């Protein structure tokens, strides 16, 4: 089978990780990296060109290449969402990666531009939105809904019939009990256990079950909460 061509947007550690997974566990061949011109600091990575995102269509035709935006959860995932939107406006198709070592049940609904790493368990009837990252080793319980632009770190438990609102982040070893709703734009720190519904914009510091008095958008200096 002919490999599909892929450009990775980003040149950070996450871009290096994405390169490894796409190269060795997907039908894609990574052919280049791209960053916004203001952040272009090097010419190559893994012996592949690093080019200005603004010049990408002239170098790598959108008709022949897909794009994956390898950016973490900066600005409550809005940076990744903005760069993905820019690539799509250039005509690129978003690529997704699902590890061959992840358990994703047959009727899971998976949106575009998702990154699902090894040892994730995604149970029946789960719906996952667009631009979602599931780092390694999470449990996503049956009938749960993960909104767009969400980042779930590692060893997170989202119990059954729960909802994670758009743009939110769940830290390492955090837990949501059954039938809960985590609002949009929430930040849940490591080891936090949620036992009740959470309003939009709530910030839970690490190892604390009490919400911060500072909202998550304000903490991350998000000017436009939409």
Structural description of this entry:
The protein contains four helices and 24 strands. It is an alpha/beta fold and 226 residues long. It folds into two domains: 91 residues, 3-Layer(aba) Sandwich (Rossmann fold); 104 residues, UDP N-Acetylglucosamine Acyltransferase, domain 1. A seven-stranded parallel beta sheet has the order 7-10-13-16-19-22-24, with no helix packed on it. Strands 3-4-2-1-5-6 form a six-stranded mixed beta sheet. It has a six-stranded parallel beta sheet with strand order 8-11-14-17-20-23, with no helix packed on it. Strand 5, helix 3 and strand 6 form a beta-alpha-beta unit. The longest helix has 12 residues.
């Amino acid at each position: 089978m002919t490999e599909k061509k892929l450009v990775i947007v980003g040149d950070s550690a996450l871009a290096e990780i994405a390169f490894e997974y796409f190269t060795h566990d997907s039908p894609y061949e990574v052919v280049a990296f791209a960053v916004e011109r203001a952040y272009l600091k090097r010419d190559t990575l893994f012996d592949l060109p690093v080019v200005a995102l603004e010049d990408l269509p002239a170098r790598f035709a959108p008709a022949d290449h897909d794009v994956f935006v390898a950016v973490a959860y900066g600005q409550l995932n809005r940076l990744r969402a903005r760069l993905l939107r820019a690539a799509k406006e250039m005509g690129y198709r978003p690529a997704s990666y699902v590890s061959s070592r992840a358990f994703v049940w047959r009727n899971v609904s998976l949106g575009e531009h998702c990154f699902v790493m090894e040892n994730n368990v995604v149970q029946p009837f789960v719906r996952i939105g667009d631009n979602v990252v599931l780092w390694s080793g999470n449990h996503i319980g049956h009938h749960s809904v993960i909104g767009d632009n969400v980042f779930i770190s590692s060893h997170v438990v989202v119990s059954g019939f729960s909802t994670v609102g758009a743009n939110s982040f769940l830290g390492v070893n955090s837990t949501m009990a059954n039938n809960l709703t985590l609002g949009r734009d929430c930040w849940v720190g490591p080891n936090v256990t949620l036992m009740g519904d959470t309003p939009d914009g709530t910030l839970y510091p690490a190892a604390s079950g009490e919400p911060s008095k500072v909202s998550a958008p304000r903490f991350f200096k998000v000017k436009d909460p939409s």
